[in-house]
Specification:
The complex is a heterodimer of chains A (about 220) and B (about 300). With about 220 residues, chain A is mainly α. Chain A starts with 9 loop residues before the first helix and ends with a helix. Chain A has helices spanning about 10-40, 45-60, 60-75, 85-115, 120-125, 130-160, 175-185, 190-215. Chain A has a single domain (about 10-215), classed as MetI-like fold (Orthogonal Bundle). Helices cover about 75% and strands about 0% of the residues of chain B. In chain B, α4 packs across α6 (about 135-165) and α9 packs antiparallel against α10 (about 235-270). Chain B has 2 domains: about 1-40; about 50-285, MetI-like fold (Orthogonal Bundle). The longest helix of chain B is centred in the middle third of the chain and has 38 residues, at about 180-215. Chain B is mostly helical and about 300 residues long. Classes of the chains: A mainly alpha (about 220), B mainly alpha (about 300).
């Protein structure tokens, strides 16, 4: 029944999806945190930059960004991403696009987490004489991190699904392989089911585990 | 300005902020200058490459028809997905366990898989099993993919919208003798629709962005796809990307602004119960959080 899988590296394609997700997740967490720091900083110019970045990137389709990273950055500006190998280059360009895009959402998730901490917490911390660093590290950030887990989990799940866009520039991940297989094999429905199942396996545990974690760690108010 | 993170700045903090501002301005200027140099190096600033966009031909032949297709696919998807989503959203609140179970499984399944997979599958399905012409097929496939995915997302919006209404609404309806169906159709749903409006408009942004996927992967002649034809004609890849990106930004910015205007207006309104589902709620629309028993939360949508 499953002979149509012969000759196709389905697990390899999903491994590529996992790699894209993992590398982009780390990258967008770093860049997104920096952006969030800018958006809540006391320096108006940094706040402005953060706001403009988020509003621009959020409103562009990811497909445009990823396609531009290949057709524009690589082909015209000659950004080889430190590799001559086409596959490695495609992977890195896709990660670049995914990080730039996802970071805007990570930034918003973190910012909304900070906003859930009531003003009174910081005021009380200052009132008992804690310094700026102490207020931040002992009172504000621990509460913010906890309320950020839920929204960040959603971003991570969306990122997992968004890695399929990398197929647009020929990165050999799951959607790319599905396109090839579905065009060449007869069992359309089974192929669709196999790939859908793969994504359910990837996203479901993430949602369940992180959802459970965010409920468990939620600050009761 | 004071926030939860820092106090109103004193003289020292003010001096430090000015210093940070200066350093940041210099860095930003360097970045912009470097980008400008890069553009110049590759002769991307030549006016000939930009010229097509101030003439009518590029717009009437490529961009506007593309934009029209984008809007067509997005609005079709929204119009079809909304009633479907409403049915599934209400079914998930049913008193019968098997109705809840089946609709919950369907919704969670379609939320958990990427919209591109649905589009690719629909495209192949239409090619093999139906007699939809090859000219119409991309549109059909894109709309089908978008509908399946967004109906599942909107089902969650509808459910959250209904759950956001105060419990007293249902109780009062039962007290005056309305039946379950009547309560849903004449009390809960009308109020939930109002509460959901901002969230629905924000979802439209996601739909508009996802149409671009169909343009690249299954050859649907939307804005991003017509950019390819345009760039092949005028040989201005970078410029066409910038123009298309600006069109998308403007379109989605209008939608986002409209959604938040709607949200503010509804929150102010005295006639409703004050339950509003805004864009912020959409991002964290986690079934586990809105009191669901079947929720997995595997449906982030950005």
């Amino acid at each position: 029944m499953f002979d149509f899988l012969d000759g196709y590296d389905v697990l390899g394609a999903f491994w590529m999806t996992v790699k894209l997700t993992a590398v982009s997740a780390v990258g967008s967490l770093i860049w997104g945190t920096l952006l969030a720091a800018m958006r809540v900083s006391p320096v108006p110019l940094m706040r402005g930059f953060g706001t403009v970045y988020v509003n621009i990137v959020r409103n562009i389709p990811l497909t445009v960004i990823i396609l531009f990273s290949s057709l524009g950055l690589a082909d015209i500006f000659g950004m080889t991403m430190g590799s001559d190998d086409f596959d490695v280059q495609g992977f890195r360009l896709a990660v670049l696009g995914l990080v730039g895009y996802t970071a805007a959402f990570v930034c918003e998730a973190i910012r909304s987490g900070i906003n859930t901490v009531p003003m009174g917490q910081a005021e009380a911390a200052r009132a008992i004489g804690l310094s700026f660093t102490q207020t931040l590290t002992l009172v504000v950030l621990p509460q913010a991190f906890r309320s950020v887990i839920g929204p960040l989990a959603n971003v991570l799940i969306a990122l997992t699904k968004n890695t399929t866009v990398a197929a647009a520039i020929g990165v050999a991940e799951a959607a790319y392989l599905m396109k090839t297989m579905i065009e060449n094999e007869a069992q359309t429905l089974l192929i669709g089911a196999v790939f859908a199942f793969g994504f359910v396996v990837l996203t479901l545990p993430t949602g369940l585990i992180l959802g459970w974690l965010s409920k468990r760690l939620a600050v009761k108010r | 300005m004071s926030s939860v993170l820092y106090d109103t700045p004193g003289p020292r903090a003010k001096r430090r902020n000015v210093l940070f501002s200066v350093v940041f301005t210099v860095l930003l200027a360097l970045l912009l200058w470097w980008m400008w140099q890069k553009m110049d190096d590759k002769d991307q600033l030549e006016s000939a490459l930009w010229k097509p966009f101030v003439e009518s031909e590029a717009w009437t032949t490529y961009l506007l028809p593309g934009l029209a297709n984008t809007l067509k696919a997005a609005s079709l998807a929204m119009v079809i997905a909304l009633p479907l989503g409403a049915v599934f959203g209400i079914a998930r609140l049913s008193d019968h366990r098997w109705v809840r179970g089946v609709s919950g499984t369907v919704v969670e399944f379609f939320r958990a898989i990427p919209v591109l997979l649905l589009m690719l599958f629909a495209n192949e399905f239409y090619a093999r099993s139906t007699n939809v012409g090859s000219a119409d097929r991309p549109l059909y496939a894109v709309v089908t993919g978008l509908v399946l995915y967004n109906a599942a997302v909107l089902a969650e919006v509808v459910r959250a919208g209904i759950l956001s209404l105060p419990r007293g609404q249902t109780e009062a309806a039962y007290a005056i003798g309305l039946r379950k169906g009547q309560t849903m159709s004449s009390i809960l749903l009308p109020q939930a629709v109002t509460a959901m409006l901002p969230a629905i408009v924000s979802q439209l942004v996601v739909i508009v962005k996802d149409t671009a996927l169909g343009g690249v992967m299954i050859g649907f002649a939307e804005l991003l796809n017509s950019r390819g034809t345009l760039a092949a004609n005028y040989a201005n890849v970078v410029q066409s990307f910038i123009v298309v990106a600006i069109i998308f930004i403007l379109l989605n910015f209008i939608l986002t602004t409209f959604a938040s205007w709607l949200e503010r207006r509804l929150r102010r309104s005295k006639r409703s119960t004050g339950a509003v589902l805004g864009a912020e709620d959409m991002e964290e629309l986690n079934p586990a959080a809105v009191g669901g028993t079947f929720g997995t939360g595997a449906g982030g949508t950005i």
